[in-house]
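Risk register update: the risk of archive-format incompatibility is retired. Evidence:
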Amino acid sequence: MELQSSFISAVEFYKYRRKHSIAALYLVCLGLLIATQTSKAEEVYQCDNHTQTCISESEFGEQNDQQLFNIPSPLPTWAEIPQCRGKILLNRPFGFLSDGPSNYSLDTKCAWIVQSSVPNATISLQLIEFATECSWDHLYVYDGDSVFSSLLAVYSGLTIYGNYKVEELNQITSTSNTILLYFYSDLAYNMSGFNISYSINSCPFNEEGKRCSGHGVCIGTTCTCDADFYGHSCQYAVCPNNCSKHGVCNMETHSCVCDEGWSGLDCNQTRDRGFWTSVWEFNGTRDERLARTQSSGSVWKGILWVVGGHGLDLKLPLTMAFNISGNDWSRVETNGLFIPTLRHGHSTLIHEGVLYMYGGVTHDGSVSSQLWSLDLSTKEWILVAPSKNKECHHRLCGPVATTGHTAVLVKDKMYVIFGYNPIYGYLNILQEYSIDSRQWNVVSSSGALVQGSYGHSSVWDPLTKRIYVYGGYQSESSSAYGLTDALHSYDPALRVWRVHPSSGSYRYLHSAIMSGGLMLVYGGNTHNETAISNGAKCYSSDFIAYDTVCDTWFKLNQPAATSVGGDLSRYGHLAASFDLNDSDEYHQPLLPYGMLIFGGFDGRLKSDVLVYIVGICTSLATKEQCLTAMPGVKCVWNKAAKKCEPLASVSKEGYEKCPESPNSQTEWSSSASAIGYAINSTLQCGSISSCPTCLHTTFNCVWCGHNCQYAKCKEGLTHTKAIPSLEHCQVADANSCRLLHSCSACHTEPHCHWEPDARCYSYVRKKVDVKEDQVCDAACSLRTNCRNCTQGPCLWCSNQNRCVDKNAYIPSFPYGLCTEWTTHENKCRDLDFPQLEDGGSSGQRNDPACGWCDDGSNRGTGTCMPGGFSGPVTNVLNFRTELVCPSQQWFFTSCPPCQCNGHSTCIEGTQKCNQPCLHLTEGPHCETCTSGYFGNPVNGGTCSPCQCSGHGTQCHPLTGRCFCTTKGVVGDHCERCDLANHYSPGLLTVSSHANTNSGVPANWTVLPTCYYDLQLDFQFTFNLSKKEDRHIKQINFRNVPLKPDLDLEFSVQCSTLAKLNISVRSAKVYILFNYNCTTFKSRFQRNEYHFGSEENTTFYVYVYDFRSPIQITVSFSQHPKLELQQFFITFSACFISLLMMAAILWKIKQKYDMYRRRQRLFVEMEQMASRPFSHVLVELQVPPNFPRRAPVPNNRCTSVESRSQGVTVVGTQSGSMNQHIIETSLCNNVTPAPSSSSSHSSAVTSNAVRRRRRFRPSPIALEPCVDQKAAVLSLLIRLPNGTLPYTPPGQSGLAIASTLVSLGSYSSRKNNISESREMPRSLPKAKTPPTLSQLA
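Archived output:
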């Protein structure tokens, strides 16, 4: 048992660590020897250095095949591990297979066949590690030797990696003697891949390599478990975790007896908080055919009625019933004139004892619009024919075929929500069916613009009277797709959609039920596009809830698989609520007893039944526990009674319904935690791009013209006022055209139009002439073969023979049953297998669906047929074939030894073909045509000569498309000119083209060719360096001179070696022949040729015999001679004109500047005149020790000088009553009279001057203008006294001066000037000279 564990660890060691050392092999062998010596002392292991294997020998020295195990080679090639290369046969009793030592390659196909030579053998596969791109890269496991056998599993995504695993026992068992594993990856992403071990006729073992999980004894192929374990592989403990110390282990019943209030297999779940359990697990009886996914059902009278489902390729019974109280299944035998076929992706609901089933995908892959009813009493099926609705004005009138939709019952109306239609894509419509009147209607709803989806969930809430729709798979454009976490609600009474906070958890094909004010969501596929998935899983076991009252998302606790007794992760399952109470008026359980989970998919089909039993609100003692525990129902706090109760009414007063904070937690460990964007309304509003949606949210969004904001419009936006109602939204912002991503869907709306850029526009945004009946290209689902499918925006699935939209791969193949697909025409292949005679035996090795039937000629010819390892099959895609091939001529995992494709024979004793090959073929296996021929010589095919109309000798070896050697000649056979690039047709004689090596047959007299017409007086440069120019060897030019009185100048320059010919038609002779083209210039005289006449001369230029890349510059010109007199006259006239214009502009600028100065003066005068009137009281006082002005002699200044003496500016100190007077004189040339004490007087005068300089005038008023940018500043000034030492009698001697100044450059001093030690600041700069005003 420990031996296999060592091998598995070795595989993991070498793949993920890649320690390539030869010493590691010996260490592994030594470890095996030590590990097995205690149990099998008689066996001796040795390492074979040549084969890199460990061999166990018996005492006689013979090799024992049962103990021969492959060890992963320490070499980088991993030679001993069967890796992903073609088809590999594995027939040893134990071994490994892997995709390789590192990440698997893109666009990979490979297969392994595990086969036992012992009849009725059991083959077991054990996943050791598995990680591929979810939903795109798959490993298919078939119960047989071909892909036409039954599917056992389809693995994809992160299934088991490290400590994470989807299933407790990742093991597959088959009894068909053969298992085929086929792996396919696309071109997008690659991951680490997988490691798988296999064993034949062995007991099951776990990922650690222990048989019977180490808890039992292997007898034959069956595990006999120890007393305290059970299960197919003894993987389950009878009393897990010792009953978690909340119960005792009863060995008689093989279960835990839990203490009161506890539940679960390990007694680790509290009953009053809600708990999980498994009530039924598939017991291995395959007759029941219970395992299924994407089925539908409802509970009625204690029975879960299950209809349909996806069985991969198994034929399932249509209707099954599960008795909840009896815990058993039964097949429902139905009757009726017509009975529906098996389908999946449909919807069901029960109304008054009648089950209604609508839509879905039938067994032939078509999407149905049928509505069936099943009377649960009589078990009779009836196909319900809809009544004609005369009031239907919508272009889509129900019923519309759909799958992946949901159906909700409200009173007597069934609402079919969204889904996928192969013609219209993801449906944005809501269909309404009246059960009483049998009428269908496509509802014209209002409110938020809702994007249609596939695989979403929807529930009816009887408390809020709304339908809640969550999650799903959506289209983002005509070729893009993605998951959504959006939550919307629909009011059937008002027909209005509303947006609720997103959950932050993306998923599709999940389940949801409504439980007393809580929407319980379970499981699903949460993997978004790989680039943005952030580790989301393919198979989820998330258990989340939405509080319809508090508008908040919560994550609920979920137990471990050991506590439930089953694997929890899955998608595509069925969920139904069952109750022990009366239902409400809409036949929905108001307070359910629990939730049933049945079936699903986690790589394999599920058949177990999980049950979640809701908790009890009254057991929650405190308000915090009551509002945050979320025991499966909505609990509210009764303020008066101070107790916790289940929610019975939304509007009932006296209850506290929501916690104070969505993140509040209690000391109770099972409390729910808030998730989603409930607290980030700004982000939620910012993600909305339509006006109606913005106005119909629950998180206070407002529409601000062109974007959605939270609460109010931000400053700086174009529209700062919020739009109050839907009527004010623009028409372009209020329609759903941009949500329609297919032409057919776009044309269902009268105001929408599909444009060539693959987008749907509204008429408001784009003016178009729209006809009533607009024609779209054929829908992808209507295209029947690979070529016409890949010519449109479609995806072709080869094994399903189906064409689907590029954005609809997931809705079309949610379980990966498309084993190979393409969007490129060059990868198409014919699926008519009997006609695959041109594929070759080597091609079938990569295709797991094909084998090779050799014709026995030993030349490599035969037929490719659909089949498996044992031979061809007779049923392909439901078509009967009559294919027979002798077993000795059938090749599936290998090819016949001689591979010459029928064009040669092999050298005796070797696999090499005799050379040269026959039939115009070449290559090591005569697999290609020789040069100048095309075709597919594989498997006896023929080759044909290239037909290039004389403009080439080479063509594509398969398609025959010619590689034209003349520039401007295009077409598959070089048969036409490239008119779009200005190459026009003409005729060229053989003699003029004899040396161009163009491949013209000798008996041709003329050869069509193409010319580039050169215009006169232009220089043309032709750069022949692109990839498509690599075959060009010649280019032709043509020119017709039009001016009869001017000579023609010609020049040409070639960057590499080339030949040049020049000829004229009129003369039919060469002007230049076979000239080496480097740089050539010539002048053609007008008197020698006919220019501009009826018989005008046409010049032909041929440049040939060159190899790309090359650059050719060529020109024809007819320029007149330059006349100096005319040139100088023109130049002088232009120069004088420019000078005059400059002078005029200068005068205009001066006039404008004078106008601006006058305008500024007027403005300043108006501002000064508009200042307010006030008064200022000025107290004049001579400061102490202020120097007196000495008398000025009369003879020192004249009367004119006295009158012209400067004014004295009187300043006031702000905040003080002291004033100072500074006198400045304009009579600067006055000299003081001589004095005996001149030195003393000079000192006093100098000191006085210095003290005067300390004083600066201060304003008595600063009056700001209205604009606060300018102000009127007022000063007191002292008038001159003339020759008198004092002011003349009758005059004050003072005046007020005002000026306009700029604000900001002046601040008053805060200290008295006599006490300040700082130099005072200068006055503000005046804008105009001060004006004087005499005091009265």
